[in-house]
Amino acid sequence: MNAASRRRRATQRGYTLIEVVVAFALLAFAMSLLLGSLTNATKQVRASDEYGRAALHAQSLLDQAGVGEALAVGQRGGALENGRYRWEMTVEPYVDPSAPPRQTEILGAPKLLQLDLTLRWGDGGPRQTLQLRSLRLVTPTDLNATGGGP
């Protein structure tokens, strides 16, 4: 070896072991932050999917209410997707809280029924519950046919 190549080796400096360890530690920290944010994003996507499916099921249940058979005052329930989603629907006469009390009721006049639908999934906590309310106009003959009216 000549003197020029020795001088080049003496001036060239590599990474020390401590620098390599610190670089790996920083890389590991950055990767853990990245994976943590991806995990949260995955949870949010899953929750959004469940809520969207619940909304579709609820819309379908409300659309089917009173189709094929008359609405009956009372409560019913069931499960969807092998028990993944559970629902309860209460049907009762609608009472307008701002209207004055009626003295007499007109026979044969259509009536409003209030449908309250509660759909739950998972453990049924506040973020896993969907509640909807709808009104339906029915004739008293429909109510009498199902035993739900006077």
Automatic annotation (TrEMBL):
Pfam families: N_methyl. The chain crosses the membrane at residues 15-38. It is found in: Cell inner membrane. This is Prepilin-type N-terminal cleavage/methylation domain-containing protein. It comes from the Bacteria. Its main location: membrane. It is a single-pass membrane protein. Belongs to the GSP I family. NCBIfam families: IV_pilin_GFxxxE, T3SSXpsI. Keywords: Cell inner membrane, Cell membrane, Membrane, Methylation, Transmembrane, Transmembrane helix.
